[in-house]
């Protein structure tokens, strides 16, 4: 492990205790001893089926949830229990893009206000003024900058997700966590957003943690992948290796289950072009 | 299940005890000295001290509270010698103003309040739910708009206005009904019915309006559920679809609200009973407040708290029966 | 081959505040016995409305034009009373979200049983036997006991199995599956697709499979209808649509699909 590690997660565990009727205690381990590294400028995908603990892990890394045990180290600094100014500093470097753009954008705020909110929270003055910076952000994510004073409801799902991405970019983060960020989108829109995410990373050099259930999407974006099942990482490594020669039986099941278009048809279509 | 019920009942007892202590603190510590009130105008310090002693008010607070609680369980005696009064368990205190044990006062008046509550509840449930259902099924229709407008208006009329208006119109002007007088059912069923009719109407109006709106909203919500589409896709008759698939999910939440409303009402409908001169718990509360008859105020408070908390437990138990998702697998 | 379902020039119109809008425009397709036709499209393409129109389950206010014939009998314009006999008996439907599609207040056994009894005269005992049989057929373990369970006591995949058992309990000629695997995990999706294909092979049911997922369609459908904004973009044999799409929109859709097996240059 060299110095280019941006985020180091060690033995992350999250247990939930619920109190059922009859006052019975139920303990449920959502994340069970998860460890991984995210290097500078790379994309790490965390994949798995519903309830495998991938979103809980993401939330803990974003410090939206406290882990039961384990450590988070960002840029060489232990931020597992950071609070106050240190937490604020961390939050300025780590941003989240959520699955449902509409429910994660305040419907009563204009795009400009939404995009400037992370800066306002951090107390940073936008470079070149609010209006100019909003325009710049909107242009970067492929939105018409003249729409800065519209409300989220006036945009399509794909456009709204672009607003969510622009908001994450506003503070110039080092790590962007995409929690199923393209799952709710139609395929044609999904392809555009994936392309956008790749371009932004090329331009700015930040890292992604890409949480997804769709392995094919992950294949388009990530250099490394961690496969989760029942709260544990069952396999992690470079995408090419994991997808071509999966070692864990669960990874194999998962890969085999992905519906594929008849490769013969695919070949013929491409050849005809 | 038995463990759950036992747990809930134990919780209920603890909560009641806390309410007891709290109300005791408020009524016997923070309000005017009852001895002074009883003593009246021709009062000497000696006489006040005498009354205080006979009431046990000269003893420390905790001892007094202990007496009160043990009175609840085992009964107690007030005063001494020729003035000795025995108050049998469960003793909620003794009202020197009416020379009666508070428990006896409650036992005498509870049937009146219960009659008012039950009659009103039957009325508002039938009218409210029927109107709400019809509105939901014919959403946006002429009937829906009229009924919901009326319900909004009806829910905003204060009870005393409605009570006085009804009384003026039906009793004084048209003379269709006699003045309410809490006649026992066994004496004269017709007169009994006539004298309770107005209190029922008054109390039921507000609730019926509320329940109509609630039912309508719940049914409309349910009709939009995916399982209703499934039911239709199965080729079930509209009657079965409505009766089986829509009503139960729509009405289950109403059971909760009804349980609470009804329980609160058992603790006395203060305004309605007072306006119609019905000698129920509500009127007793009003009278005791006017006279500052502290043992009675305290008892009425405790009784209302008991009904509300017991209603809560009953509703929760009922809910586990009605909604399978709340049951434990 | 005699056609089971013939849809001709189907148009579905919704009244809106800005005037009537056609959510489905002149859509035509046929489904043969023992055949699966896939309807594919992105959100707002009108694919779900097309399937609801076949079942006569369009939301109130919607108007339809064209023709929908099931087994040679016209369905459009028939009163709801008569359509009720068709629903469940001749054509039935499964939906995207099995949890919300099942009534949480009743056991799955009762929900299957009431469907059977709505169409067949039989004793409750007989109906119960059929329910257990149906649950066995879709691979629910311990069907006698599980029939007494409520929907929330099943996993997502099992709930969809229950829905399938229910849909097939009257042995309908046509099954409409509207995004039946979209809400499920991939491994569960694979199981449900296998189950549906197997049941269809055994019973000879015609199936309309509605989805946004082209890869899923390619694994299950013999013919494919591609829809976009209510219009029929392309309709043909699956092989033709996937290997030699005639329309640019189909080509674009196919090229948008992220592929797991491709080499990707990052």
Automatic annotation (TrEMBL), chain A:
- What positions does the domain ABC transporter occupy? 7-255
Q: Does the keyword Transport apply?
A: yes
- State the family named in the UniProt similarity comment for this chain: Belongs to the ABC transporter superfamily.
Q: Record's PROSITE patterns?
A: ABC_TRANSPORTER_1 (PS00211), ABC_TRANSPORTER_2 (PS50893)
Lineage of origin: Bacteria, Bacillati, Actinomycetota, Actinomycetes, Streptosporangiales
MF terms from GO for this chain are: ATP binding
Which source organism? Nonomuraea roseoviolacea subsp. carminata
Top-level lineage group: Bacteria
Which InterPro entries does this UniProt record tie to the protein? AAA+_ATPase, ABC_transp_ATP-bind, ABC_transporter-like_ATP-bd, ABC_transporter-like_CS, Oligopep_ABC_C, P-loop_NTPase
Name listed for the protein in its UniProt record: Peptide/nickel transport system ATP-binding protein
Give the record's keywords alphabetically. Answer: ATP-binding, Nucleotide-binding, Transport
Please list the coiled coil stretches: none
| Residues making up the signal peptide according to the UniProt record | none
What Gene3D superfamilies has UniProt attached to this entry? P-loop containing nucleotide triphosphate hydrolases
Q: Which CDD domains match?
A: ABC_NikE_OppD_transporters
From TrEMBL, chain B:
Q: Where is the ABC transmembrane type-1 domain?
A: 110-319
UniProt name for this protein: Peptide/nickel transport system permease protein
Q: What is the lineage of its organism?
A: Bacteria, Bacillati, Actinomycetota, Actinomycetes, Streptosporangiales
- The protein's organism comes out as Nonomuraea roseoviolacea subsp. carminata
Q: Which domain of life is it from?
A: Bacteria
* Pfam families recorded: BPD_transp_1, BPD_transp_1_N
Question: Which SUPFAM superfamilies does the annotation name?
Answer: MetI-like (SSF161098)
CDD domains reported for this sequence: TM_PBP2
Signal peptide as annotated in the record: none
From TrEMBL, chain C:
User: Per its UniProt record, what InterPro entries does this chain match?
Assistant: AAA+_ATPase, ABC_Ni/Peptide_Import, ABC_transporter-like_ATP-bd, ABC_transporter-like_CS, Oligopep_ABC_C, P-loop_NTPase
Sequence ranges assigned to domain ABC transporter in this UniProt record: 5-254
A Gene Ontology MF term for this entry? ATP binding
The entry's keywords: ATP-binding, Cell membrane, Membrane, Nucleotide-binding, Transport
Q: How does it sit in the membrane?
A: Peripheral membrane protein
**Protein's cellular compartments:** Cell membrane
Q: Which SUPFAM superfamilies match?
A: P-loop containing nucleoside triphosphate hydrolases (SSF52540)
Tell me the protein family, please: Belongs to the ABC transporter superfamily.
Q: What is this protein called?
A: Peptide/nickel transport system ATP-binding protein
Organism name: Nonomuraea roseoviolacea subsp. carminata
């Amino acid at each position: 492990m060299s110095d280019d590690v941006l985020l180091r997660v060690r033995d992350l565990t999250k247990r939930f205790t619920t109190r059922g009727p009859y006052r019975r205690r139920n303990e449920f381990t959502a994340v069970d001893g998860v460890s991984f590294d995210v290097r500078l400028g790379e994309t790490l995908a965390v994949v798995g089926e519903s309830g495998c603990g991938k979103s809980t892990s993401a939330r803990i890394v974003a410090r939206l949830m406290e882990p039961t045990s384990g450590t988070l180290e960002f840029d060489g600094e232990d931020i597992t229990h950071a609070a106050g100014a240190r937490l604020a500093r961390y939050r300025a470097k780590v941003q989240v893009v959520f699955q449902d753009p509409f429910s994660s954008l305040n419907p009563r705020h204009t795009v400009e206000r939404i995009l400037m909110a992370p800066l306002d929270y951090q107390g940073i003055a936008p470079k070149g003024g609010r209006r100019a910076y909003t325009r710049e952000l909107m242009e970067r994510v492929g939105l018409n900058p003249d729409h800065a004073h519209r409300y989220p409801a006036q945009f399509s799902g794909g456009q709204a997700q672009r607003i969510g991405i622009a908001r994450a970019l506003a503070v110039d983060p080092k790590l962007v966590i995409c929690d199923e960020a393209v799952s709710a989108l139609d395929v044609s829109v999904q392809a555009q957003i994936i392309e956008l995410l790749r371009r932004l990373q090329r331009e700015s050099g930040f890292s992604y943690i890409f949480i997804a259930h769709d392995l094919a999407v992950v294949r388009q974006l990530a250099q490394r992948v961690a496969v989760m099942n029942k709260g544990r990482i069952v396999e992690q490594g470079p995408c090419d290796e994991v997808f071509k020669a999966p070692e864990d039986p669960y990874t194999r099941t998962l890969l085999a289950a992905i519906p594929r278009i008849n490769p013969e048809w695919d070949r013929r279509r491409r050849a005809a072009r | 299940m038995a463990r759950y019920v036992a747990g809930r009942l134990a919780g209920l007892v603890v909560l009641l005890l806390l309410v007891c202590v709290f109300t005791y603190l408020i009524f016997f510590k923070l309000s005017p000295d009852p001895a002074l009130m009883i003593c009246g105008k021709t009062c000497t310090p000696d006489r006040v001290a005498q009354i205080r002693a006979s009431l046990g008010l000269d003893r420390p607070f905790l001892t007094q509270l202990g007496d009160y609680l043990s009175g609840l369980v085992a009964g107690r005696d007030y005063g001494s010698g020729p003035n000795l009064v025995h108050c049998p368990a469960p003793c909620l205190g003794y009202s020197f103003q009416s020379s009666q044990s508070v428990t006896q006062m409650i036992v005498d008046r509870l049937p009146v309040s219960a009659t008012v509550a039950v009659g009103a509840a039957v009325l508002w449930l039938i009218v409210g739910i029927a109107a709400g259902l019809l509105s939901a099924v014919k959403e946006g229709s002429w009937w829906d708009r009229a009924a919901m407008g009326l319900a909004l208006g009806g829910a905003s009329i204060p009870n005393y206005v409605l009570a006085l208006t009804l009384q003026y119109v039906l009793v004084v002007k048209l003379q269709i009904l006699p003045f309410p007088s809490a006649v026992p059912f066994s004496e004269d069923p017709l007169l009994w019915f006539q004298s309770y009719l107005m209190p029922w109407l008054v109390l039921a109006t507000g609730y019926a309006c509320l329940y109509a709106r609630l039912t309508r909203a719940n049914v409309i919500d349910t009709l939009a559920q995916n399982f209703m589409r499934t039911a239709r896709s199965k080729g079930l008759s509209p009657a079965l679809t409505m009766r089986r698939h829509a009503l139960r999910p729509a009405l289950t939440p109403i059971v909760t609200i009804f349980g609470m409303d009804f329980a609160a009402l058992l603790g006395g409908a203060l305004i309605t009973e007072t306006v119609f001169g019905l000698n129920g718990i509500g009127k007793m509360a009003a009278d005791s407040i006017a006279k500052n008859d502290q043992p009675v105020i305290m008892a009425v408070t405790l009784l209302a708290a008991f009904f509300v908390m017991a209603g809560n437990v009953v509703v929760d138990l009922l809910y586990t029966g009605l909604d399978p998702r709340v049951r434990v697998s | 081959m005699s056609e089971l379902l013939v849809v001709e020039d189907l148009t579905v119109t919704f009244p809106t505040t800005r005037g009537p809008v056609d959510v489905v425009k002149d859509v035509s397709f046929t489904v043969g016995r023992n055949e699966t036709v896939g309807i594919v499209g992105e959100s707002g393409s009108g694919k779900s409305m097309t399937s609801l129109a076949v079942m006569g389950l369009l939301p109130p206010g919607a108007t339809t034009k064209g023709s929908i014939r099931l087994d040679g009998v016209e369905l459009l314009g028939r009163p709801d009373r008569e359509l009720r006999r068709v629903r469940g008996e001749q054509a039935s439907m499964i939906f995207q979200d099995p949890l919300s599609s099942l009534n949480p207040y009743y056991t799955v056994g009762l929900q299957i049983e009431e469907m059977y009894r709505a169409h067949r005269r039989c004793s409750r005992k007989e109906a119960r036997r059929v329910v257990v049989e149906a649950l066995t057929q879709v691979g629910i373990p311990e069907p006698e006991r599980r029939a007494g369970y409520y929907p929330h006591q099943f996993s997502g995949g099992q709930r969809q199995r229950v829905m399938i058992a229910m849909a097939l309990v009257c042995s309908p000629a046509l099954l409409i599956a509207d995004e039946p695997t979209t809400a499920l995990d991939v491994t569960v999706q694979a199981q449900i697709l296998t189950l549906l294909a197997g049941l269809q092979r055994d019973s000879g049911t015609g199936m309309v499979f509605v989805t946004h997922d082209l890869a899923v369609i390619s694994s299950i459908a013999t013919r494919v209808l591609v829809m976009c904004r209510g219009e029929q973009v392309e309709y043909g044999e699956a092989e033709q649509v996937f290997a030699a799409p005639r329309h640019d929109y189909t080509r674009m859709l196919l090229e948008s699909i992220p592929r797991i097996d491709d080499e990707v240059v990052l």
